[in-house]
Amino acid sequence: MAIVLGPNQFGKAEVRLVRIDRSRTVHHITDLNVSTALRGDFDDAHLLGDNSHILTTDAQKNTVYAFAREYGTGQIEDFALRLGRHFVGSFPWIHGARVEIEQFAWERIVVDGSPHDHAFSQPGGERRTTVVTVDGPSVSVVSGLAGLVMLKSTGSEFHGFPRDRYTTLAETTDRVLATEVTAQWRYVTTDLDFGPLFGRVRDALVTTFAQVHSLALQQTLHRMGEAALTAVEQVAEIRISMPNKHHFLVDLSPFGLDNPDIVYQVPDRPYGLIEATVLRDDAPTVSDRPQARPDTTSAP
Is 57 a catalytic residue? Predict the structure, then answer.
C-alpha cells in the first residue's frame, strides 16, 4: 500500500479591500472580501519542502490590491476573471485558479431629503458573491447572494405531512414564513454584463417569495429558482439554501392575556434547512457546481 499526495491548492483567504472612487464630487465605495486559491504542480512543496513553484499567498494578496488600483474593480465577476486569468498565466506550473469574492453594500445617508455625496451607512448583512474558476482553457462563473433575510407575515401554510409517534408539530393554514437566502447560480458564458443580470436574478427571487402563496418552504424555493432561470436565460442552474427562521406564538395565558397571532418567540436554533438545485435539463455540467450554504457566522 502506498501513501500519496491527493488534490491540493493554496491561496490567500479573505483579503479585505475597500476602494473609494473620489474622481467626482459624488464618491463611490466598493467593499470586497477576496479569496484566491491556486492549483498546479506543487508536489515538491508538500513532499520535499521545495518552494520554487510557490507563488506566495502574500503575493496573491498584493496582486488583489494592485489590480484594484491599476484596473479598478468593476463588477465582481469581471474582477475575479481578471485575477484568475492573471494567476494561471503567470507561471507554467500554475494550472488553475479559484477566486471567490463577497461584496458588501453601502447606502448613502440621506440628509434633508437628498443622498449625501460622501457619507454612507451599511444596510443589513446581505452580500453579493461570485466564484470564478480558471482551469486551463476552461472558465466558469458562479455568482450569487448571501444573507438575504425575508419574511412574510401571512400567505404561508404547512399541513398534510405524515405523523409518527415523535411528531408534535401542529398543522397550520396561516403562519409566519421567514428565511435567510443563500443562492448561487452558474452562468453559461463569461462574456456578460454581470451587473444587470445579478439585479434581474435577485428581483426574481425576492418578487417570487413575496407573491407565491406558500404551501411549504420547498415549494417556495423551487418557484424562486424557476423564476430566476426564466428571468435570465444565461443562467444554467441555481442552487438555493433557505433555513426556516421559525416564529412560535408565545403562550401569554399565565398572564391573563390572549395572543391572537401577535407576539412571537424567534429561537435562533435548531432550524429547518431546505436546499435544492433548480436547473435546465440541457444545462452543461461543470466540475465546480454551485454549492450554496447558510451563513454560519449568523446562523438563524
Answer: yes
